[in-house]
């Protein structure tokens, strides 16, 4: 009797092992069949606008990395030459220089120089400051657009994914109402559509919002540096002296001796 029970236990264990092997084989086959295209088809109509969002997100990230570099916007290497022009009161020469080297820095500074050359005998630095502020706002709004687009994508993608989820669940309940639970593969396809669109929306939204805050923070820092450089230049124009920040050690020691 004990031998019979032992043999039966062996058969049960062997059957379980074979069944487990079949399940693992089927799961592996299903995993091999699952690819990007099958996921897109399973996700339904919402995957197409989400795919467009992902494409535009990548394009905007690349564009912002290229266009928002501090070196591209500020051109700090131009500061010593422009400061020298300001000390020598060569506003017209500096304006021509800015026109030949357009950038956010040059365009903003050039707007202030234009106010300096409006024909008045004395420079009204209040008007110059207003002109610089207006130009900086114009430049800022132009460069902030690609950053704001990332925010729009980050906010819209989860909502679009949620809409796809609702659409998939509606189809799932419609399938249950029409066919009952007799065809689980149809129900699984609808539920798959519901889950995949939500996941895709979040996958797009998370990096979009991350890079939105990343670029926004970096651009704010660049604007602060721009304002500081503008102050140095117009101080040099007003006082005729080199700003302390641009003086070398010997000049600082000579200044201390005075």
What does this structure look like?
The protein has 258 residues and is an all-alpha fold. It contains ten helices and no strands. The chain has one domain. The chain has helices at residues 2-33, 36-43, 47-67, 70-74, 79-87, 91-100, 104-116, 125-179, 184-239, 249-257. Residues 1-19 form the signal peptide. Belongs to the exbB/tolQ family.
Tell me the total number of β-strands: 0
Topology as a string of helices (H) and strands (E) = HHHHHHHHHH
Mean pLDDT: 76
User: Multimeric state of these chains?
Assistant: single chain
| Total number of helices | 10
- Gyration radius from CA atoms, angstroms: 33 Å
What fraction strand?
under 5%
Low-confidence stretches: 2-32
Q: How many domain units?
A: 1
Largest sheet: none
Shape: rod-shaped
Specify the structural class: mainly alpha
| Proportion of residues in helical segments | over 70%
Q: For the record, give the distance between the C-alpha atoms at the N and C termini, rounded to a whole number.
A: 114 Å
Pfam families: MotA_ExbB
Keywords: Cell membrane, Membrane, Protein transport, Signal, Transmembrane, Transmembrane helix, Transport
Subcellular location: Cell membrane; Membrane
Family: Belongs to the exbB/tolQ family.
């Amino acid at each position: 009797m004990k031998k019979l029970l032992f043999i039966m236990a062996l058969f049960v264990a062997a059957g379980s092992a074979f069944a487990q092997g079949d399940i693992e084989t089927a799961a592996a086959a299903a995993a091999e069949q699952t690819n990007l295209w099958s996921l897109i088809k399973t996700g339904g109509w919402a995957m197409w606008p989400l795919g467009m969002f992902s494409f535009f997100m990548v394009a905007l990230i690349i564009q912002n990395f290229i266009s928002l570099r501090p070196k591209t916007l500020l051109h700090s290497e131009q500061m010593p030459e422009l400061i020298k022009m300001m000390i020598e009161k060569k506003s017209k020469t500096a304006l021509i220089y800015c026109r030949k080297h357009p950038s956010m820095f040059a365009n903003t500074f050039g707007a202030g120089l234009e106010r300096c050359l409006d024909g008045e005998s004395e420079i009204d630095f209040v008007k110059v400051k207003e002109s610089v502020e207006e130009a900086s706002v114009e430049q800022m709004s132009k460069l902030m657009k690609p950053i704001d687009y990332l925010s729009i994508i980050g906010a819209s993608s989860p909502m679009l994914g949620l809409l796809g989820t609702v659409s998939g669940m509606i189809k799932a309940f419609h399938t249950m109402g029409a066919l009952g639970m007799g065809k689980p593969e149809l129900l699984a396809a609808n539920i798959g559509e519901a889950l995949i669109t939500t996941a895709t929306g979040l996958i797009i939204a998370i990096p979009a919002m991350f890079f939105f805050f990343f670029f926004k923070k970096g651009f704010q820092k660049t604007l602060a540096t721009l304002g500081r450089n503008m102050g140095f230049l117009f101080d040099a124009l007003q006082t005729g002296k080199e700003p302390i920040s641009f003086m070398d050690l010997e000049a600082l020691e000579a200044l201390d001796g005075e």
